[in-house]
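Exercise: predict the fold of this chain.
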Amino acid sequence: MTAPVTYTLHQNDTEPSSKARLGRVTTPHGSFDTPAFMPVGTAASIKGLLPDQVADAGAQCILSNTYHLLLRPGPDLVAQMGGLHPWMNWPGPILTDSGGYQVFSLTKTNQITDHGVTFQSHLDGATIELTPEHSISIQNRLGADIIMAFDECPPASHSDQPGYRDRVLTANDRTIAWLDRCIASHARPDEQALFGIVQGGVDLELRTQHAQAITERNLPGFAIGGVAVGEGPAQIRAVVEHTAPLLPPDKPRYLMGVGYERDIVAAVRAGVDMFDCVLPTRNGRNAVAFTPTGPIRLKNAQYADDPRPIDPTCDCPACSKPYSRSYLRHLFQAGEMLGPILTSLHNIRHFQRLMVDIRHAIAHNAWSAFAEAWPVADL
């Protein structure tokens, strides 16, 4: 059986200290260049933006959230409407997460056992059970090109406390057992690529052990999970630099939920291919605009009479028209929808420009020029 998602390596970085690589991931709904940043459409929508705008900003693959789509509108309705692609008018590749992150983020309202996780819905308080089989069944009905195994993400915030290693070991063992159940219940393996997830917290020895166990399953791709959940940049970098080379070189490598420029660049140089994060649109809705020199908080009074665009080097609609920082600040102050829309669109484009320049730096061994153009990445 041919894998529904394949990875083609085009070029390895020629800089000796870098493991970065250029490639392309091919899916049933088209291909995307790597390294790639995937905008997050939690509820089958990139908040405030039309799919065409997201594509025009350079995004080639997007992500949607299994947990939220389970709660509303439900996977049966999405399947009835033909799956996520036609329903949300996104013709390109889509990745869905498994809902496993809610194991971590909803710790106050969940109960974890070897069987699965029981949640209290944040919408109406209803009790919901999510198991590996249920997660895969939901994702089969949603119809994404890449689907994620159900896993347990141990918190990093307790890494210095007694019992942390035992807690991570339990999560690792459970994630392996859940992966086997995901593989067994996957009903569309010829149409949807199931990725396994490597956990292990900040313990590098446990990361090594877990990577070996997860990659023994011959899956179309693999992810590094459990980072950016409370660690600082140095810990994130250490975990990623250790783990990425442990993943198969002929499969795509995905770092889940990491979005700051410095973390993306460090992970690319460790050999990671795929990224996602809610930062561009979440921050955009809250008047924070990203630039190559650092974020701008548009609500600050200093921008009230600032005639400049967010970023003079950016070619997004917000910057190229241009809309001034003064006007954007006014939109946020007045509660006008256009402010979050324009700033989110700019932020999406910002991260796609970052990836374009990263790919150029790999292709042409141009990291010094990249560092000069992107000081925020702190190369």
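Check your answer against the key: The chain has 15 helices and 16 strands.
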